[in-house]
Amino acid sequence: MSVSQTIGGVTAGRRARSTWFRGLHGADYVWAIAFAVPYVALFLAFVVYPICYGLWLGSDPELYAQLFADPRYFTAVINTLIYVGVGVNLKMFLAFMLSGFFMRKRGWVKALLVVFILPWATPALPAYISIHWLMNGQWGMFNNILWLLFDIDGPVYLNSHWMGLACNIGAYVWKNLPFWTVILLAGRMSIPQELYEAAAVDGATGMRKFFHVTYPLMANLYLVCILLDTVFALGDFNATTFVSGGGPAMSTEVLATLGIRYAYTVALPRLGVAEVMTALPVLIPLVYILMRKLRVSEGQL
Amino acid sequence: MSTTYGRTVNTGPVVAGGAGTARVVRRRAGRPHYRMRRYGMEALAVAFGVVIAVWSLLPIYNMVIIALDSHDDVFSGAIWPEHPSLESFRVVITEDFWYLARFWHQFGNSFYVGLTVMFLTLAIGSLASFTVSRMRMRYSWMLSNAALMTYVIPASFLAIPMYRIMQIYGLSNSLWSVILALTTFATPYAIFIFTQYSSSIPIELDESARIDGATPWQIYFRIYLPLMAPALVAVGTYALLLAWNEYLYNFLLLSTPDSMTVAVALAQFLNSDESPWNFMMATAIIYAMPPIILYYGFRRYMAAGLTMGGVKG
Asked: What is the pLDDT of residues B295-313, one digit of tens each?
C-alpha cells in the first residue's frame, strides 16, 4: 500500500467509483454533454485561445535575441530562481515544522492557530503594501522597533538588491505559510494514531517515530505541495510589485513582473510574452509531473 | 548513580538487589528532572508561540497604526501614534478625498466581481464535476486533466494574451472581463475538489433516484448539490478570496474610476510619493474586512472542505 493510499484514502474512493446503474443511455448522454458544455466553453475561450494567441505572439525568434541581449532579463532569471528556490523550500520546511507544533493539544495552541491564519485571510494587496511600509528604512516600524529594543540603526532594506529580494521572499512566505501549514496539518492528522502506538510498543521514541512513521507517510504530500507551490511562486506577481516594487533600479524584478513591465511600461507586448515563454521549459515538466502525481494520489489538495 | 550501577554489574551475587536499589534511586532522582524538562519544553513552546504571533500580526498591526495616525505623524513610524484618531476612516467612508471619490461604488464593484466569480465557479465547477465523477461519461477524464493543467498555469503568465483577447471579445473595461478571467482560474480547482469530495457520496443514492424515474438534472439538483454543501462552501470561499486577492487582471482590464475595483484604486495611491498613506491604510483595512469575516465565519468548513478530498478517506 503506497503512501498516497493511506493518506489519500484512495482505497475508499476507488470502491465507490462504479458507474451509474447499467451505464448511460440515450438521453443521459445529452445531459452529460450539456453539463460539461459551460466548462468546455470557458476552457476553449479563456485558456486554449489565449495560450495559442500567446504562442503566436511569441513565435518570432528575433524577440529572443532581443531578450537575451537585455541584462535585466538575466537579473530577473536569477532573482526568480532565488525567489522560487528559497521561498518555496523555506516555506514548506517551516510549514512542516509548524504543522507538528500545531498538533499540540493545548487550548492556547488552538487559539494561536486562529491568529496564525490571519495573513492568509488578509487580501494580498493591503498586506504587501503594509509590509512595504513596515520595511521602509527611514520611517518604517520595523527599524523603529529595532532601535527601541536593541539600539540598532537598521539598514534601508528596500534600497539594496539582496535585502529587497529577501523582503519580497519574506512577504511571500508570510502570506502563504498559513495555507500550507493547514494542508500539512490535515495530512498529519489523517495519519492513524494506531501506527504511532504500534511504533511505541516496538520501543520507538520521538525522533524515531518521526523518521519511521511521520516522514514516510508525509513524503508524498510534501512533494506535491512543493511542486504546486513552485508553480504558484513562479507566477507570483503581487509580492514583488508591492513590497519592493521591482526596485531599486529594477534589480529585484522576477519573470512575472518583468513580462508585464515589458508589455505595459515599455509597450512591447511581444517581448513580454517571449519573456514569459522562456519559463516554459521549466514549467512544462513540472506541470507534467504534478498532473501524474495528483492523479496517482487522487489529489492531496 | 553510575558507580552504583557499575558495582552491581561487577559483583555477581548481589546483582538482583543492587540493580533494584539502583532503579529505585534513579526513579527518585529522575522524576523532578523529568518534570523540569517538561516545564522547559512548555516554556520553549510558549516562547515559540509568541514569536509566531508577532510574526503573523506585525504587518497587520502596522496597517492599523498607520491608519490611526494623523496626517503629520505618518512618517514618524511610532509604535503607538501620539494622537490616534479615526479621521482617516471618516475620510474613506465619506469619500472625502479625490482618490477615494468613488470608493463605495468601487467597493460595490469588488463585491459584484467577487460574488459573481463565486457563483459562476460553483455552478460551472459542480456541473462539470457531475459529468466527470457521477455520470462518468467516457473520455470525461480528459476534462479533469484539462482542468488540472489550467490549475497549474500561472495566471500572470497568461495576462498579456488575455488582455488582447478581452479586447477581441469586446469586453475591455468591463467588469465581466475580470469575472470571466478569474472564473477560468478558479474553476479547475473547484472541479478537482468536487470530484474528490463526491467519491464520499454513495453512488447508490443516484441509482435509486434513477429507478424512481429522476432525470440527471433532478439528481444533480436534488441529490448531488445538497450533499456537496460542505465542499460548495469551502470552494465558494476560496473563489471569493481568489477574486479579492487578485490585482493584476483588475489593473490590466479595468481603467476608468467607475469600472475600477478597490484593488486598483488602492494601488493608485502608490503612483505618487505624496499620497496620504493613512487614508490608504484605512481603505486597505476596510477592504480587508469582508474576506476576514467570511473566512472566520466559514472556518469550520474550510479546513474540512479544502482537504477533504485528499486527506480524509
From this structure: 888 777 766 555 543 433 2
